[in-house]
Amino acid sequence: MRVLVAEDERDLARLVALGLRRAGFAVDAVHDGEAALERLDLYAYDVLVLDRDLPRVHGDEVARRLVAAASPTRILMLTAATAVEDRVEGLDLGADDYLGKPFEFPELVSRVRALRRRSARPALPPLLGRDGLLVDTVRRTATRDGRDLDLSPKEFSVLQILLEAEGAVVSAEELLERAWDAHADPFTGAVRVCMSKLRAKLGEPAVIRTLQGVGYVL
């Protein structure tokens, strides 16, 4: 799951991005509305955590442009403007959710996860299962035949994407796009290495198949 944080307070942006990464998300951070729009044009983000009072291009205008473009990216406004009229205005602009500052971090993580589930068509359930695998996307746990898999955040994200594909092939490029941030080098073999570690933890019989030159299928 990929998240863009648009927040002009750099220390807060860094802390939010760090916390979301620890929760298992691939996160990029920008500090003004123009940079946010540039990133949104380049990458397919699941959720945008958007401060309203951004320089260069106001956060409200960022939301308007996303809505006008029929973008599938969900918008969570994270702002100090917490009066009822502010929340109503933000939601009317096209935000999918609204969280005031200061905030409790577990609530932010929960809201981001909820928006990600709702962004899928049809909406994704919090529990994903197939071939003895059971993934809880809320508690971030994964088991196979009742055995805890003890996955790293990146391994968990890759397995979740494969489960969400429901038997369809997922290319290495798509995995890199959705589970890694913008700083990932596409030539490092990161997907291949992660997939090797994931397969080892899943054990036998193998449930992930490689289609050479195409991608991976569960």
TrEMBL record:
The keyword DNA-binding applies. Residues 125-218 bind DNA. InterPro entries: CheY-like_superfamily, OmpR/PhoB-type_DNA-bd, Sig_transdc_resp-reg_C-effctor, Sig_transdc_resp-reg_receiver, WalR-like, WH-like_DNA-bd_sf. CDD domains: trans_reg_C (cd00383). PROSITE patterns: OMPR_PHOB, RESPONSE_REGULATORY. Keywords: DNA-binding, Phosphoprotein. Residues 125-218 form the OmpR/PhoB-type domain. The keyword Nucleotide-binding does not apply. The modification 4-aspartylphosphate is found at D51. Residues 2-116 form the Response regulatory domain. It holds the Pfam family Response_reg. Transmembrane segments: none annotated. It comes from the Bacteria. PANTHER family: REGULATOR OF RPOS, TRANSCRIPTIONAL REGULATORY PROTEIN CUTR. This is Response regulator transcription factor.
